[in-house]
Amino acid sequence: MSDRLLVIACGALAQEITALKARYGWEHLDLKCIDAKLHNHPAKIPARLREKIRLNKANYADIFVAYADCGTGGEIDKIIEEEGIKRLPGAHCYQFFAGEARFTEIADEELGTFYLTDFLAQHFDQFVTKPLKLVEHPELRDAYFGNYRRVVYLSQTDNEDLMLAAKKAAKQLGLVFEHVSCGYGELESSLQTVALQRDIGLSNKRTRHDHVAVTEK
Known about the structure:
By secondary structure, the protein is an alpha/beta fold. The protein folds into two domains: 5-91 and 185-216, Rossmann fold (3-Layer(aba) Sandwich); 100-181, no CATH class. It has helices spanning 14-24, 45-56, 75-83, 93-98, 100-109, 118-122, 124-129, 140-145, 160-173, 185-216; strands spanning 5-10, 29-34, 62-66, 86-87, 113-116, 150-155, 176-181. It has a four-stranded parallel sheet, with helices on both faces. Helix 3 links the parallel strand 3 (62-66) and strand 4 (86-87). Helix 2 packs parallel to helix 3.
């Protein structure tokens, strides 16, 4: 087994995790993603996750899952326990980025809040408009979003195109637009902890090896 780490993540987090890998030089951390489109079919996520884990378990020192429950009714937690692997903390993607305390504050301000991240702003049509058939049937907007009052865009990057896309999404839904700059939030700090643990483990391993080598001399 290698000393490498694997993060199995929702495809909606792929861009952010890849950016963090590059920022910190985490060459020892690999990323494998499950298609984000399965959020529209959450019952299919657990089996796909278990498949990914079992295909890769023998090849990595540790595997971490970057998934929340995602509408699976506790099945992801069950798989993680059964397979004996670990999960990055966070109830959902929005909490990953905003942080638990900040997200709770935002949510408490207005329960009728629809959230966007960079990924969802970029792919709003693919993940919201088209699956809900809002173009063909605009009258469905009230059925789906009648109880919402605002869109909060939790941005990871400072990107003018994504900001415009998020504002367009809010307008399309007929909701008030608000923006909260989050960066990578707890996703970043959690991955830093994972990477640091691995580095400490390798350092201890090298120290033991060096000690044995000196003793043998």
